[in-house]
Structures are given as C-alpha cells and as structure tokens.
C-alpha cells in the first residue's frame, strides 16, 4: 500500500535552549540547519520505497521551542508491504501495519513514544475515500525488537474493510453472466453444430 503523509517527530535537545526573557517562544529555523544538529535516524522497517517531496523546496519544517523541544515535520510518500489474508475475499477485513523506529540506536539511546497518546497520534483526512476499501480505524501500539539490541518500534495499523459492491459489479456480475451464456449451448439442437 502507498500513503502520502506528514511525518512529525519531536524530541528535546537541551543544547538548543534559549533565554526565558526572549520575546520568542518558538523559533522557526531553516531546514538547512538540520545538517548541523542531532536528529533521530528513523526508518520504516516494512517500507519498500519512500521519497521526500522536494517541489519547489524540500517539504520540511523545523521549529525549536524555548525549552529545547524540537518539532521536525516532513511530507513523505511511503510504499509499505501489507500481508493480506484473502480467505474471505471480497468480504474481508485487512490490517496493514506501518512499523518505524531507529535504524541504529537501541532503547538505551533513543525511546520512541506516541506524542498525543495512542488515540490521537494518527489523524486521517476527513474527506479521504478509496475505491476498494473503507478505513475502519488506525490503532497504534509500541513493540520491542531485538536486532542488535533491544529497540523500540512504533506500529500503526490501518484497518481496511473491502467494498463488496465494487467487486460485485466488476467481478461477480460479469463472471455470472459468462456462465449463464455458456448454458445457452445446451438448449441449442444437437444437429446445429455450427450454432453450438
């Protein structure tokens, strides 16, 4: 599956704190400063191909709060794998996970947590529609993986229910008509071989 999203990360770097008597509470910084500060090396574990939108400039946002909290946002298109169970096709419900975490740091270095708690971490567009599926929800949870040590992984599951009407019109009705038309051959006289 493929999704276009705004991927936002936030962390605290006390080295970037600035004075409390400053009139600024938040400092909007050029994204070119990202090369000079530490940032997490987040990667999508079940991602197959992803790209950052760069028209007309890189679609990134960097804000630094007075207390050193950094907000880093970017617009991504992510293609990820989704293991589907098609036993009940076309009346099936699928759960497509998106797993991400640190590529090189363990849990002792970087801990990933959902910012707004588990219920508000993923916001879907209110007018989003798909031709084949309805989105029932997007529950999230944390996991621990042991690759080169224990590392935290955030998982977002997109629960999809297939539209039966789409497949009824595009698959079942044409196949049923084809089978019914093939029965016509049994009612034609045996001697009319050309017609049969």
Structural commentary:
This protein is mainly beta and 196 residues long. It has two domains: 2-162, Acetylcholine Binding Protein, Chain: A; 171-196, no CATH class. It is built from one helix and ten strands. The protein has one helix at residues 164-187, and strands at 2-12, 26-29, 42-44, 47-52, 60-65, 69-80, 93-102, 133-137, 140-146, 150-162. The strands form two sheets. Strands 1, 2, 4, 5 and 6 form a five-stranded antiparallel sheet that branches. β9 and β10 form a beta hairpin. 7% of the residues are buried. The model has no long low-confidence stretch (mean pLDDT 89).
Features:
single chain; 196 residues; mainly beta; Acetylcholine Binding Protein, Chain: A; 2 domains; five-stranded antiparallel beta sheet; 39% strand
